[in-house]
Design brief:
There is one protein chain. With about 280 residues, this protein is an alpha/beta fold. The protein contains 10 helices and 12 strands. Helix 4 packs across helix 5. The radius of gyration is 19 Å and the shape is globular. The structure holds NADP nicotinamide-adenine-dinucleotide phosphate. The site of NADP nicotinamide-adenine-dinucleotide phosphate has 26 residues, from helix 5 and helix 9.
Length: about 280
């Protein structure tokens, strides 16, 4: 039986999800098809009704729908409910259930690349948007020893730190304080949108002068593959990872929710890295 799936977002033109999922379907000999749908906030409700009527197996949601989708679902798993955000929806017998695979996607990506990095890790999250919340809370519950949060708008960092506080040692700090204490962290995760094309390729959330050699540095951005922040961290001797492994692992976890099996992640990361390099070379 062949199924339809997709991703809803706005903008959505540069999404790698169709390439990734359709490639996995080919690898698994599935006759399914995954499509990217550009859908405005106003049309989300009608769009979801349409996918329900067409018996889509499931779909992903991305910016700006991760929170608005909640009111259109019949059920939420515990993680999505706690985060108040969904990125994966499964349709079964006409009912829609929401999940959030972003945080666990990053943890799987870290464990695949650096199997011991999370043991007793002291983590600094830069940024306090939706992605930061998912990652910070999942890390807080995973047994790391500290999750601190810094952000331009400190109140948002405080809100995330408060959510993490039942599970882990945590505090919110200003960007200046974070720059000064950067050397005390074993892992730094950059989750602002600074450094992405539209936000200025040369912009950095904070300077990395105090960074210790061997610190694990992750940027959730994957386009460009190396932001200025990640490049400067690497030059200070950090071990670095861009956002592509997280994208692939959160997608693999969505795949698992729909089909009950995990697709191969390592070869997909290599494939999409080459794809992005070629896309840039041809610009
Ligand atoms: N790799 C993946 O699979 C994956 C998954 C999800 C997200 N992401 C990436 O993660 C990033 C954040 O996504 P999100 O959903 O969390 O976005 P969001 O909710 O809009 O949060 C944006 C964050 O960036 C900060 N920011 C934006 N402009 C800034 C500026 N000029 N100066 C300083 N800080 C600024 C915001 O600070 P304020 O709070 O002060 O505004 C906030 O912390 C995006 O680049 C997204 O592509 C990657």
């Amino acid at each position: 039986m062949s199924f339809l799936l997709g991703v809803l977002g706005d903008p959505i033109g540069h999404s790698l999800s169709p390439i990734m999922h359709n490639r996995w379907y080919k690898e698994w000999n599935y006759p399914h098809y995954y499509h990217a749908f550009r859908l405005s906030k106003e049309n989300l409700s009608d769009g979801v009704k349409g996918l329900k009527a067409l018996q889509f197996k499931g779909f992903n949601v991305t910016i700006p729908h991760k929170v608005d989708i909640l009111s259109l679902l019949d059920e939420l798993d515990d993680e999505a409910s706690e985060l108040g955000a969904v990125n994966t929806v499964v349709q079964e017998k006409g009912r829609l259930k929401g999940y959030n695979t972003d945080g666990r996607g990053l943890i799987s990506a870290i464990n695949e690349k650096w199997p011991t990095a999370l043991e007793k890790a002291k983590v600094l999250m830069i940024g306090a948007g939706g992605a930061s919340l998912g990652v910070a809370l999942t890390l807080a519950k995973s047994g790391v020893s500290q999750v601190d949060v810094t952000n331009r708008t400190i109140e948002k960092a405080e809100a995330i730190s408060q959510k993490c506080s039942p599970f882990v040692q945590t505090k919110a700090l200003s960007l200046t304080e974070a720059e000064e204490t950067l050397g005390t962290y074993t892992m730094v995760i950059q989750s602002t949108s600074l450094g992405m094309g539209p936000h200025g390729l040369d912009q950095m959330p904070l300077v990395v002068n105090q960074l210790q050699k061997g610190t694990y540095c992750i940027d959730l951005i994957y386009n460009p593959l190396q932001t200025r922040w990640l490049k400067e961290a690497e030059e200070k001797g950090a071990l670095t990872m861009n956002g592509l492994p997280m994208l692939v692992h959160q997608g693999a976890l969505s795949f698992e929710h729909w089909f009950g099996v995990m697709p191969d992640t390592a070869s997909m990361i290599t494939f999409l890295t080459q794809h992005l390099e070629e896309t840039h070379a041809n610009r």
